[in-house]
Structure formats: structure tokens, C-alpha cells
Amino acid sequence: MSSQQHVAILGSGNIGLSLAKGLVKSGLWQPQQITLTRRNVDAMAEYATQGYQTTTNNMKAAKRADIVILAVLPQQLNKLLDEIKPAIKSEKQLLVSVISGVSCEDIRSYLEMNVQVVRAMPNTAIAIGDSMTCIATDNGSVKNVNLVKSLFDTVGVSIQINEELMTSATALCACGIAFFLRSVRAASQGGTEIGFHAHDALKMAAQTAKGAANLLLQLSSHPEQEIDKVTSPKGCTIAGLNEMEHNGFSSAMIKGIKLSAEKAGDLYKAED
Ligand SMILES: NC(=O)C1=CN([C@@H]2O[C@H](COP(=O)(O)OP(=O)(O)OC[C@H]3O[C@@H](n4cnc5c(N)ncnc54)[C@H](OP(=O)(O)O)[C@@H]3O)[C@@H](O)[C@H]2O)C=CC1
Ligand SMILES: O=C(O)[C@@H]1CCC=N1
After folding, report:
1. Which residues belong to any copy of the Pyrroline-5-carboxylate reductase dimerisation domain (predicted)?
2. Which of 12, 84, 208, 217 could in theory staple to 62 by disulfide, Cβ–Cβ 3.0 to 4.6 A?
3. In whole angstroms, how far apart are CA 221 and each of 31, 154, 214, 215, 251?
């Protein structure tokens, strides 16, 4: 990463701040190269003391930046674009949007400008450098896509996908964090009912979930292959698993992901 480059994160909430911290933690960016904006500037006081530029002025932040990251809520985007439009030069800045349900074309057509736009869909594990981030564009150069990929690779794992799959990626990966967290919580509640104190049950459930994910990631195996190793004939695992399936476990997850994907596609349109 060039030490001359500057990034502006417009909308420094959960995702924006996590990205900023991840970039600095990677050692590739200095806080001085990152401008953070939000309307409540006082909420960023701690970041100002660490050397980040903090401001409410989106226009000035965008003007100075090579990479402008849009990280407000979908319903806050149009106002933000109105503010930064005078500062955007199609040949200078690259726009990176993490906003759900907003296409690259939506952004260009609102700005009435042929600027390069790359979308990135991280999840909240970005805060600990463990995000699954999907990246897509319809007009970004290979160089710029690789640049965005390298940004998000510093805070987890990233893959490039077709833009039409971005709402699906939102449901599976960004919303998905919440789905898996709820599963872990439910497992811990079961654990408490069968005898463990709540904090022990949660730790045991979380480590077990981590182990399950790592079995798939490190062995490149299929879930059913790993499940078959656990389910002894006439054993207790298959009894529990089948009971969960009779109660709609897989079906509930599939239906939830489908509904989230539908909703993700409508987030921006709903605000028109
Ligand atoms: N949360 C998640 O897990 C994920 C979220 N996303 C997407 O990322 C985006 C941000 O989500 P998230 O970080 O959770 O939301 P937050 O509400 O935490 O962050 C949005 C931030 O934008 C600021 N903001 C609002 N309007 C303006 C403005 N005009 N100028 C500057 N700052 C502004 C708000 O602060 P203030 O009110 O002080 O201005 C707030 O801090 C959303 O579009 C979401 O769809 C994507 C992937 C995962
Ligand atoms: O729930 C939401 O709308 C946002 C987008 C993906 C995760 N959180």
C-alpha cells in the first residue's frame, strides 16, 4: 500500500470503524492516512487521539482521499452522495461501498458520474480480522478490485463474486454472523439446561462451533462427512440431530437466509 494514499471512511459506525482499526492493525496503513466521518464527531474522540483524522465534513474528507469508503446505512446514502458529489472526480477517486442493497450503478446514476465503484460486503468479524468479505464491481479496473481485495484481506478472507450475488452474500455472510451466533447461544442454553453454568456453557458451545468451522476450513471436507464421524450407530448424536431436524433445524436456517436475501435486495429501494 502506498504511504501516499489516503482513505476516507464516510459513516464511521460499526463496520467503518472496524475496517479502520483492521487497516491500521495490519501495519499497512497509518491512522494519519485515514479520515473518519460521522455527524456526531464527539463519538470519534478516542480515534482522534490515536492519530486518525476525524470530521463531520464528508466533502472535504472525500476530496482529499484516493479511496472513499461509503459506510452509512442505505437510507442515509443519498444525503451523503449529495454532500460529496462536488468532491468526486471520476479520474481521481475510487468509491468503495459496503452498503447493503445498493448497486454500483445506483451510486453512479445518483452521482450522474462515471466513477469506478467497487462493492464490499464484510461481516462484523472484521473487528477481529476474521471477516468473510465478498467483493463485486461492474466497472472497477482489475487493479482497483485487487486494491480493494488487499484492503479487506487485511481484515479477514475476501472473494470476488458477480454483483448480482451481492444480496445473497449479504444474507449468507453479513447476516450469517448473527445466525451462527444465535445457534451458539441456543446450544449454550441447552448446555445450561443439562447442567453447566451459563458462562461455561457459552464458552464450551463457542469453542465447539469454532472446531466445527475449522474442520471444514482446514480439511476442506463436507459437513455430512464430518457429521458421519460423530454419529455412532444407535448413538446419542444421531438421536439429537434427528430430533432437531424433525423440528425444522435446517429448514429454519434455509428459510431465514432466503428471507434475509430478499430483504437485503430491497433495503435501498424501500427508501426511494
Ligand atoms: N453491521 C453489519 O454487520 C454490516 C453492515 N453493512 C452495511 O454497512 C453499512 C453500515 O452499517 P453499520 O456500520 O452497522 O451501521 P452504523 O449505524 O453503525 O454506522 C453508520 C454510521 O454512519 C454515520 N452517518 C450517518 N449519516 C452520516 C452522514 N451523512 N455523514 C457521515 N456519517 C454519517 C452514523 O453516525 P452519526 O449518526 O453520528 O452520523 C453511523 O455511525 C450499512 O449500509 C450496512 O448495510 C455491511 C455488512 C455488514
Ligand atoms: O441487517 C442489516 O441490514 C445489515 C446488513 C448486513 C448486516 N447488517
Report:
1. 163-265
2. 84
3. 40, 26, 10, 7, 22
